[in-house]
Amino acid sequence: MRETGENPLFAAYYRSPFGLISILSDSEAIRALSFGYLPGDEQEKPVLHDAIIQLQEYFAGKRKVFTLPLRTKGTPFQESVWYQLQQIPYGETRSYADIAFEIDNPKAFRAVGMANNRNPIGIIIPCHRVIGKNGALVGYAGGLQYKQKLLELERLYR
Fold first, then answer.
1. What is the total count of domains within the chain?
2. Residues linked to residue 2 through DSSP beta bridges, in sequence order
3. What gap in Å lies between CA 48 and CA 71, rounded to an integer?
4. By C-alpha distance, which of 84, 143, 93 is closest to 115?
5. SS3 at position 2
6. I want to staple 97 with a disulfide (CB 3.0 to 4.6 A). Which of 10, 71, 102, 109 is the partner?
7. What is the mean pLDDT of each run of 10 residues along the chain (158 residues)?
8. What range does the domain containing 140 cover?
9. Catalytic-residue membership of 6
């Protein structure tokens, strides 16, 4: 169990087609999701079980929208970016400038990139769908190889 200063965090691990994914939750909501290992106390929590099922469906091309309770902790600006990322349809991409425009802060595209980088719940909050204005794959906290694979997966099942 990992403490966050508020509630303890519990962990579940899923072996995706692209590698290990760690999922952390409190008793009610997903708090973090990342490629690689994040330490936590493995517990049978319904929200973690549901997350694994929805990830399995996503990687099989059967799930386009996640319906899990999420709990993020960011600045109001970060929260607005993370909300806007969830509005990007499956299989589509947006630029950092597009997101900045959508949150009514068109000059904040660099800050959007920083918020994107700090997204604690990758895949479910689909920061991999944000690309450079010229269409280039730029910046992904999990690594560009994962970003490319996730976008290819979504194009395949779109």
1. 2
2. 9
3. 13
4. 84
5. strand
6. 109
7. 64 97 97 94 94 98 98 98 98 96 96 95 96 77 84 96
8. 76-157
9. no
